[in-house]
Amino acid sequence: MIRIALIAFCALLISACATTSNEALPLEPLKPAPDGRVNLVLHRDAFYLALITATIRLNGVEIGKLKNNHSLRYSAAPGEYELMVDWPLLSGENDMTRKVVVPDEGVLELNLTARFRN
Question: Facing residues of 44 across strands?
Fold first, then answer.
């Protein structure tokens, strides 16, 4: 019985290290933002925290969650915001905060990479 439990534990440990595909999911065409607002698009690349979902906040308000190789679209009014990326406690990552300026027109695209270094 102990052998079976040990084999099962090892199999789970090894499978937890598996990563997802590096190919991004296809996106639907971006719909125009409502009048006076701009589309904010956040992309999350695949990296070692494949099973962890990040919570994205703008000025402290949750706007969505991001998984590996996914994008989050949000319509925001032009101006300066505090973008926060909250990681679950067990991920071992620190929450991150950056100032972003949403332009008066167009689309603002941001790419979330490992440890938000870029």
Answer: 70, 112
